[in-house]
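QA checklist item 7 of 12: single-chain prediction sanity check.
[x] sequence parsed
[x] length recorded as 258
[x] structure emitted
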Amino acid sequence: MTIYEPNFIYANEDSMSYGVMLCSIDTINTDTNDEENNIITSTTPYKETWDFHGVEKSAPLQFTITIAKTDGTYFDAFEMRMCKKWLCKNTFNWLQINQNDISDAFYYCIITNPRPVNVGMLTAGLQFNVTCNAQSPWTELKSKVYTSTVTKNLSVNVISDFDKYVLYPILTVAATANGDISIVNNTINKTLTFKGCVTNEIITLDCRNYKIKSSLGRVMLDSWNKNILELVEGTNSIVMEGAFTMKLQYRLPIRIGG
């Protein structure tokens, strides 16, 4: 990926507020491991071919960044300390580069290993390692809201950079009347059901991690059929049954590197 826009945002702070920018010093930053995978195969002494079993992810996306001061001067010790405090945190944060063609790409990453880039005795830049939580960046957080009074038919379209991608959103259901709630995906013939919902109860289901919570604090194990909402690539034919509002929140992976 080509980065030509020097300004960026990390942990909700803009690089301009620190007077720094992304750059290359002497060499172009090409140290990255875009989509590092292993192909899983097997064979036997009696076969001339190998059987394909799948592709295994072997490492998250990793790359290096270099920053320099926007005014072209060298870093002093205080400025280096401030930049390290800002960038080298003990948690993952969002990195966004202010560039038109990747403005919707958000790297959820942790930045480590700060080291100076020296010119003679002076520090012209600082270089860091970036490790992401996935093999690609993500889109901005997307949100869709739908309302059903009794029954509602709708279509949810998923467009992904990856073949046969399955989206697992964070689902928030707000009951507007007492009763059972069902969400049917006719495209894959799967039904998600919550029984015994109460007016104004809010149920949140993290479909990727199978985490569920009710605003009333009730244990959902006996009231939930243990299915989740899965959205496949293309058009998903959804039927909402019951009186409730449904909110879908999700990010999609973007197939660009670092």
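[x] summary fact logged: The mean pLDDT is 92.
[ ] second reviewer sign-off
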